[in-house]
Write a structure and sequence with these properties.
Layout (H helix, E strand, L loop, with lengths): L8 E7 L3 H10 L7 E4 L8 H4 L4 H4 L9 E6 L5 E5 L21 H9 L7 H11 E3 L13 E5 L6 H11 L15 E4 L1 E2 L1 E2 L2 E2 L2 H6 L8 E4 L2 E9 L2 E9 L2 E13 L2 H11 L2 E2 L1 H6 L6 E2 L11 E9 L7 E2 L1 H17 L11 E5 L10 E6 L13 E10 L7 E3 L10 E3 L6 H18 L20 H11 L1 E2 L29 E3 L14 H21 L1
Parallel strand pairs: 1-2, 1-14, 2-11, 5-6, 14-25, 15-16
Antiparallel strand pairs: 3-4, 6-8, 7-19, 9-10, 12-13, 13-14, 17-21, 17-24, 18-21, 19-20, 20-21, 22-23
Helix pairs in contact: 1-13, 5-13
GO molecular function, one term: flavin adenine dinucleotide binding
Protein name: FAD-dependent oxidoreductase
Organism: Pseudomonas alkylphenolica
Length: 539
């Protein structure tokens, strides 16, 4: 962010200024004796589109602060390419997402620990969630009030949310007081990462308040080309910044926090990864690690939408609402209140696709607006939509290199629906989703479906899902934590076979958690910072 000459040596280099990277850089630099350089390929987070919550709708479908990746052709999606928006700015995807504060189910973390990842059970990670959090309305053993990340209620909710929750209750989904607390299952209003009517991204929470620290350097617009390895130890990075090649050295460690696409890409560009993949692009092998870029998992998501004649409780394109939004923008500028604070995704539910399951396997996200193809298809007038998300897909994909050029986007292949069970569960969920949306509480707002469908025609439902389903923006697992042949890092997040190199972001998740991944990524950043500081004290 500054234009000062770059000091060539730091104690720690953190690659990626996203949800985990901002946490790590901030926590390490709390000690004035530790020098840290945070390296971000995107720009600063000064845009009003980032800070005004409703600005998400301008960034998500475009390249504004967004890498806007595409997947490889997906046979499971009838030959379509999926869309993968990722934050290209300080704060990473926490600067462009819907701000939902969701931790996942306690079982998810106990499952990680059961796979041999010591220190990653729910009891182990809960203190880091609490440490990170400043919850403005929940005060109990599950929540914190003194952390940097502001968590609050939706401040200007649509009346449709109450109708949605009533409709869920009529379909057997009871209300839960706190989906991040004792019981995840149920319907609820989402909590969001906002402070005083503005987005509270990881950058806003952890980084921006601390930019004056003399021991913290933040580089934006810097593309890391490779990690420098000497005698099986990471000693620095080579990057492009301001049109020049720069080498930065690390006295202690290099931490990759470039996300589930960026971290495996940097590892492979550094010669760390599957031998065949590296040979294909003429990259000299530094350390063969077959699991790099494997084990990619993502939440597949199916949206059903209804048009509505209501233009006061829904977002949409109409003369009346355009005037409402003009007044709302003036109100937000003046008071930081009103419609501009909406995350669009306001209420939801966690539920089971069939009785007898030990925990919810599906999630609903209700939106008082028409949602079509990630808002890339703009529809006139008003409506409401509901996302249906498969929480623990069986399908596994890959992240590979397109070339040895660090500026080239990686090849992303989630392999959606490559496991037939994923489609079966989503179809069962679609029946419940539709029953909720067609229940009586939503009748005053409900018009015709955007995509009419005979729900009883199972073949038609399957094809509608294959034609329209796509990511819920939660890719994980491509640098998985563990001790099996495809593991990339151990349970201290150290890259197997390379000293002084760790990965700390959503890519280390061995399995996808049952919920949105931003809060868990921040937790991973908190836990990684503790590991680094403990290692420094011990060594």
């Amino acid at each position: 962010m500054t234009t000062d000459p770059i000091n060539s040596t730091f104690d720690y280099l953190v690659v990626g200024g996203g949800s985990a990277g901002c946490v790590i850089a901030s926590r390490l630099s709390e000690d004035p004796s530790i020098s840290v350089c945070l390296i971000e390929a995107g720009g600063s987070d000064s845009s009003v589109l980032i800070h005004a919550p409703v600005g998400m709708v301008a960034m998500l479908p475009t390249r504004i602060n967004n890498w806007a990746f595409q997947t490889e052709v997906q046979p499971g999606l009838n030959g379509r390419r999926g869309y993968q928006p990722r934050g290209k700015t300080l704060g990473g995807s926490s600067s462009i997402n819907a701000m939902l504060y969701v931790r996942g189910h306690r079982h998810d973390y106990d499952h990680w620990a059961a796979q041999g990842n010591q220190g990653w059970s729910y009891a182990d990670v809960l203190p880091y969630f609490i440490k990170s959090e400043q919850n403005h309305s929940l005060h109990d053993d599950y929540h914190g009030q003194h952390g940097p990340l502001s968590v609050t209620e939706v401040s200007c909710p649509s009346a449709l949310n109450a109708a949605f929750i009533q409709a869920a209750q009529l379909n057997g989904i009871q209300r839960t007081a706190d989906y991040n607390g004792a019981e995840q299952e149920g319907a609820f209003m989402y909590q969001v990462t906002q402070r005083n009517g503005e987005r509270c991204s990881a950058a806003k929470a952890y980084l921006t308040p601390n930019l004056q620290r003399r021991n913290l350097k933040v580089l934006t617009g810097a593309t890391v080309e490779r990690v420098l390895i000497e005698s099986a130890r990471a000693v620095g990075v080579q990057l492009r910044h301001g049109g020049q090649r720069v080498v930065l050295k690390a006295r202690h460690e290099v931490v990759l926090s470039a996300g589930s696409f960026g971290s495996p890409q940097v590892l492979m560009l550094s010669g760390i990864g599957p031998q065949q993949e590296l040979h294909k692009h003429g990259i000299r092998i530094t350390h063969e690690l077959p699991g790099v870029g494997q084990n990619l998992q993502d939440h597949i998501d199916y949206v059903f939408t209804y048009r509505s004649s209501n233009n006061t409780q829904t977002f949409g394109f109409s003369p009346t609402f355009s005037w409402q939004m003009l007044k709302a923008m003036a109100q937000w500028k003046r008071e930081r209140k009103g419609l501009v604070t909406s995350p669009f995704a306001e209420s939801g539910a966690f539920f089971k696709s069939q009785p007898g399951l030990s925990m919810p396997d599906l999630q609903l996200i209700f939106v008082p607006a028409i949602v079509d193809d990630h808002a890339r298809k703009l529809r006139p007038w008003h409506g409401f939509s509901c996302h249906l998300t498969l929480l623990r897909p069986k399908s596994r994909g890959t992240v590979k290199l397109a070339s040895s050029d660090p500026s080239a986007a990686p090849l992303i292949d989630p392999r959606f629906f490559s496991e037939p069970q994923d489609l079966e569960v989503l179809m069962r969920g679609a029946d419940i989703q539709r029953a909720i949306l067609e229940a009586s509480p939503l009748a005053p707002y409900r018009g015709k479906p955007l995509y009419p469908l005979d729900q009883h025609d199972r073949q038609a439902l399957e094809q509608d899902i294959r034609n329209r389903a796509d990511t819920q923006y939660h890719p994980v697992g491509s640098c998985k934590m563990g001790h099996d042949p495809l593991a990339v890092v151990d349970d201290q997040l150290r890259v197997h076979g390379i000293a002084g190199l760790r990965v700390a972001d959503a890519s280390i998740m061995p399995t996808l958690i049952g919920g949105n991944t931003n809060a868990p990524s921040i937790m991973i950043g908190e836990k990684a910072a503790d590991m680094l500081l403990r290692s420094r004290q011990e060594g």
